[in-house]
Amino acid sequence: xxxxxxxxxxxxxxxxxxxxxxxxxxxxxxxxxDRTEAEDLVQETFTKALRGFSSFRAGTNFRAWIYRILRNxxxxxxxxxxxxxxxxxxxxxELEADSPTPEIRLIEQANREMVxxxxxxxxxxxxxxxxxxxxxxxxxxxISETLxxxxxxxxxxxxxxxxxxxxxxxxRREGARHGM
Amino acid sequence: MACEEWRKQVDLYLxxxxxxxxxxxxxxxxxxxxxxxxxxxxxxQLKRSVQMAGKRYSxxxxxxxxxxxxxxxxxxxxxxxxxxxxxxxxxxxxxxxLLLSAYFERERAAQRRVYSELADLHxxxxxxxxxxxxxxxxxxxxxxxxQGKIPFTFNLPELAGxxxxxxxxxxxxxxxxxxxxxxYQVRKHEISVFILPERAGEMQQLSSGAVDALSFQMxxxxxxxxxxxxxxxxxxxxxxxxxxxxxxxx
Lengths: 180, 250
Prior knowledge:
Chain A is an all-alpha fold. Chain A contains 10 helices and no strands. In chain A, helix 3 packs across helix 4, helix 4 runs parallel beside helix 9 and helix 8 packs across helix 10. Chain A is globular. Chain B is an alpha+beta fold. Chain B has a single domain, classed as MucB/RseB, C-terminal domain (Phosphorylase Kinase, domain 1). In chain B, strand 5 and strand 6 form a beta hairpin. The relative contact order of chain B is 0.09. The chains are: A mainly alpha, B alpha+beta. Chains A and B meet through helix 1, helix 2, helix 3, helix 6 and helix 7 of A and helix 1, helix 3 and helix 4 of B.
């Protein structure tokens, strides 16, 4: 992804952006939860990125740059404004330690569909950070650039997102067990 | 360190964000602590299940082609290269066309110059009081007369049975080269036949074939290293007939 500093834009937009198309789409539909909205969002992202490509600094992280464009476009959309809840987390770098209860069996039995439903139920800030970390396999640094949040917030939000996901999966399982 | 402290590091460890010294210490602890090992296994499984569940949506082929088109239609570095790819052959073709037309133009100019000079020679010779230096209708008289006067030899056709009459011959010069100038007559029209060795230079570029120039009928061809010109005000048919006789004889 890195291009020589003395050759700005030596790698073309096409070379950098097209390989990310599928992932960007997946991320977009996770955010919007709607196919049409996701398609609009991806198109808007590519249009904005094309227009702004001259301002992209060669040698910096293209992936974080274009994901940030997608996410900012989503945030300013109607769906985005509704779903993005404010998180009271600034300054809370404290990582949560979880209960020592082994949940191995829970996760083992959680099939793909269950996890997908649990992810859908998560608030968007938790959903997106989990996707960036687990699916896009971004480093904390990249996530920090993409979401425009400090590293400490990346760690605490990720920790809380995981805890929320686990809690949801566990509750569903408990519910199922008690015939709910 | 208490297990609670270790567990705070498990996510960082699995996300690859833990410094290698800390990572080493954590994995050493996990090897000895089954509770922490269980915790780590659970986190790994959750991570993996999110990874799998997260790859869920695929874009439609319509969107893919739309985006691909949008991206590759963009005016930018890549398209400058594409543009060059088109421009280079176009320019090359243009230059080739210009060179070709310049070449043909030069050839046409040379041809016009030679033909106009030969037409002048034809007119001047006929206007002169002594048009020919060897006055004879007999080709066996005319041909030997040229021996020693021009650096080549040629054959003349038998005219019996044709409308053509040989009037005679003289030596002429075209571009410092001596040649044979023969004058024929057909139905009161005089026709000049110019024969000279074909050499490098303008003469070689001349195309063969009949032309209608300066109100004279002209024909030209090469045979056995000799360039023939037939110039006259006779009809095109007569010029062609004489040319045919000369070609068959030469």
